[in-house]
Design brief:
five-stranded mixed sheet, Nucleotidyltransferase, domain 5, 3 helices
Length: 133
C-alpha cells in the first residue's frame, strides 16, 4: 500500500526483449539469404578438389550427366550441335566463361571430347566445376 505523499515510480519500457527478437530476425534473414543461390546446371555429383575456386556466375553451363547425356543451360543437346549453340550464345560476349559440370562417374574420354569441341571457339574460357571436400 502506498501513501498519498509518495511519488509514483517512473514508468520504464524494457527494450531488452525487443533487441533479442530483432537479432533473431536478423539472423534468420541472413541465414535464409545464403540459400538463395541460382544454379544453372543439372544435379550431378562433382568430383572434389582442394584447389577448387569459386567462379563468377555465368550464363553458359555445359552438363554431362552420369548416363552421358549433354545439356546446355539445362536444355538437352547433342554433341554435334554443342559447338554451334555455344558460338551463338557467346557471339556478343567474347570473354565468356563456360562451366563444365561433369559427373564424377562420366568417362574421361567423353569429358575430353566435349572440351575439344568447345576449344574450337575463339577467346572462350573453360572451367571445370568441382566441389571442395
Amino acid at each position: 500500500m502506498r501513501l498519498p505523499d509518495e511519488p509514483e515510480p517512473p514508468l520504464q519500457i524494457n527494450i531488452v526483449p525487443l533487441i533479442d527478437v530483432m537479432f533473431a530476425l536478423l539472423t534468420f534473414f541472413i541465414m535464409s539469404s545464403l540459400f538463395l543461390t541460382q544454379s544453372n546446371g543439372l544435379s550431378v555429383n562433382l568430383p572434389k578438389a582442394i584447389t577448387a575456386q569459386t567462379q563468377n556466375p555465368t550464363q553458359i553451363t555445359v552438363t554431362i550427366a552420369p548416363d552421358g547425356h549433354l545439356a546446355l543451360n539445362r536444355q538437352p543437346i547433342q554433341l554435334d550441335a554443342l559447338e554451334g549453340e555455344v558460338r551463338h550464345l557467346v557471339q556478343n560476349n567474347r570473354e565468356s566463361l563456360i562451366i563444365l559440370n561433369a559427373d564424377k562417374d562420366v568417362k574421361h574420354g567423353q569429358v575430353v571430347e566435349v572440351m575439344d569441341r568447345l576449344r574450337h571457339i575463339k577467346d572462350l574460357k573453360l572451367a571445370i566445376a568441382t566441389q571442395q571436400p
